[in-house]
Specification:
The complex is a heterodimer.
Chain A: H1 17-31, E1 46-50, E2 54-60, E3 63-65, E4 68-71, E5 77-81, E6 84-90, H2 92-113, H3 119-132, E7 139-147, E8 150-156, E9 162-164, E10 167-170, H4 174-184, H5 191-208, E11 216-222, E12 226-233
Antiparallel strand pairs in A: 1-2, 1-10, 2-11, 3-4, 5-6, 6-7, 7-8, 8-9, 11-12
Helix pairs in contact in A: 4-5
Chain B: E1 6-8, E2 14-16, E3 36-41, E4 46-51, E5 54-56, E6 59-62, E7 68-72, E8 75-81, H1 83-104, H2 110-123, E9 131-138, E10 144-149, E11 155-158, E12 160-164, H3 167-177, H4 193-210, E13 217-224, E14 227-234
Antiparallel strand pairs in B: 1-2, 3-4, 3-12, 4-13, 5-6, 7-8, 8-9, 9-10, 10-11, 13-14
Helix pairs in contact in B: 3-4
Classes of the chains: A alpha+beta, B alpha+beta.
């Protein structure tokens, strides 16, 4: 009996099945004077660093769609396996689906082999897939995890390039965050100091970059387990409006009214007393 | 590490650069520096408010660059769009105001300034000033007046108007709260100064939540017959 494959073996060459369809759709939509929907980008600041006891990952929580904030509390740190987490920047759907796919594949592998997956395996699978799609999948990922070989931090670019580094930042706020990391990073830092450094790096990205904002999420991965702190720090700018804008019933005008009675027959009747004391 | 080279699109936003063949790089004389302005006219007052963030692409140039400029004792103009053109335009208006004062021995009224601005803007019809203007002030009778413009000089007098990057978010809210549109059975109370200021503050807090180009601080200029009072309120900085 053949062993169930962890991954389907990809067909050789590049898979561009949908390109022809997209071009045709564009032509159709243009004729119909509608625009193709713009994919939502996360416009992000994500950062990670390796410390003495494990890996600390951090991310902001703002997702932008052009110049409008689409989601004020989006989760950018994705679960891959019990010992590996991944931050994603770039097109929101791409990071979401790519990490989901990776997570599913690694779960199958874990069940087959009875082991927690190693970080290099996750990195290799991601690299294979993203390179195959020639950058059409706009996902910039920071993978961090702890396995039998130690604490690892990798970055995977949308074209499939990888880098193994002790500290890292990606997204539109990467340069701001990198400034803080370059200044204060030391090898083998203590856990609390590492968390504060990541928080400060993300905070710098939030303040300097318009595509990042709102709250800060932190994920700490150690040999003992994972501490996913969401939010690690809430934004200090809670909306403090002075007046409450409430509309009483009847504010919306009723133009027409149509009442359709539902034909029901009573099949079973149960009475449950509410405690309204 | 792979860095994706980023090219500024012609409205100042960043674009991903894929190598698809030879690319012709064009120089754009304009750039979008963000910012939102808002003006409200009351019975005997006018309010002109703007945020103070100056941005380009995803970066911030300044957190303290207000977009309201005082023209006379009874008129304030709010300009947002391309900052270079905003500065030049306000310089030109200031010069023209002085010329008028020296020739006619009196200050220009709000209506006159609006008409003059329209001709100044249309004079550059084929290389426009990339500025969204809103003038707020008191007319000859002492009543509040708001004049809103497009980049090439089309204007009209309004009761309230929002312009700039978050205008599409603010204008419907103002239509509802000041114009009482789309509401039934609500008393049409005239707007007093205190409520108007409160509304302007709330509306900008909301805009800063959802528009990345709006934030940092809010500068409110309140124009009454006693002069122009300025107030600054902090907004989201992220």
């Amino acid at each position: 009996m053949a062993l169930s494959n962890v991954l389907e073996i990809p067909t050789s060459g590049f898979n561009f099945e949908n390109v022809a369809r997209n071009v045709a759709l564009e032509g159709l939509l243009e004729g119909g004077q509608t625009k193709t929907p713009k994919p939502m980008k996360t416009g992000t600041t994500i950062a990670g660093l390796v410390c003495k006891e494990g890996v600390v990952l951090g991310a902001d929580t703002r997702a932008t769609s052009g110049e409008v904030v689409a989601d004020k509390m989006c989760a950018k740190i994705h679960y891959i396996s019990p010992n590996i987490y991944c931050c994603g920047a770039g097109t929101a759907a791409d990071t979401e689906k790519t990490t989901d796919l990776l997570s599913s594949n690694l779960t199958i592998f874990s069940m087959n082999s009875g082991r927690n997956p190693r970080v290099v395996m996750a990195v290799n699978i991601l690299q294979d897939m993203l390179f195959r799609y020639r950058g059409q999948i706009g996902a910039s990922l920071i993978l961090g995890g702890v396995d039998c070989n130690g604490n690892h931090l990798y970055t995977v670019g949308p074209y499939g390039s990888i880098d193994n580094v002790p500290y890292l930042a990606m997204g539109s706020g990467d340069l701001a965050a990198l400034g803080i990391l370059e200044d204060r990073f030391k090898p083998n830092m203590e856990m609390e100091e590492a968390k504060e450094l990541v928080r400060d790096a993300i905070h710098s990205g939030i303040m300097s970059d318009l595509g990042s904002g709102n709250n800060i999420d932190i994920c700490v991965i150690t040999k003992q387990g994972v501490d996913y702190i969401r939010p690690y720090q809430e934004s200090e700018y809670k909306d403090k409006r002075q007046k409450r804008y409430k509309y009483g019933p009847g504010t919306t005008s009723i133009l027409t009214e149509k009442i359709v009675p539902l034909e029901l027959e009573v099949v079973q009747e149960t009475v449950q007393r509410m405690d309204t004391a | 590490t792979m860095f994706a080279t980023q090219v500024y699109g012609d409205n100042g936003k960043m674009k991903e650069y894929h190598y698809t063949g030879p690319v012709e790089h064009r120089f754009s004389p304009y750039s979008f520096n963000g910012g939102t302005v808002l003006a409200v006219a009351g019975e005997d007052f006018a309010i002109v408010a703007s945020d103070t963030r100056l941005s380009e692409g995803y970066s911030i140039h300044s957190r303290d660059s207000p977009k309201c400029y005082k023209l006379t004792d009874t008129t304030v103009i709010g300009c947002s769009g391309f900052h270079g053109d905003c500065l030049t335009l306000t310089k030109i208006i200031d010069a023209r105001l002085k010329m008028y004062k020296h020739s006619n021995n009196k200050c220009m009224t709000s209506g006159a300034i609006a008409a003059m601005l329209s001709t100044i803007l249309y004079g550059r019809r084929f290389f426009p000033y990339y500025v969204y203007n809103i003038i707020g002030g008191l007319d000859e009778e002492g009543k509040g007046a708001v004049y809103s413009f497009d980049p090439v000089g089309s204007y009209q007098r309004d009761t309230y108007k929002a312009g700039g990057s978050a205008s599409a978010m603010l204008q419907p809210l103002l239509d509802n709260q000041i114009g009482f549109k789309n509401m039934e059975g609500v008393q049409h109370l005239p707007l007093n100064q205190e409520k108007a200021v409160q509304l302007v503050k709330d509306v900008f807090i909301s805009a800063a939540e959802r528009d990345v180009y709006t934030g940092d601080a809010l500068r409110i200029c309140i124009v009454t017959k006693d002069g122009i009072k300025e107030e600054t309120v902090p907004l989201r900085k992220d």
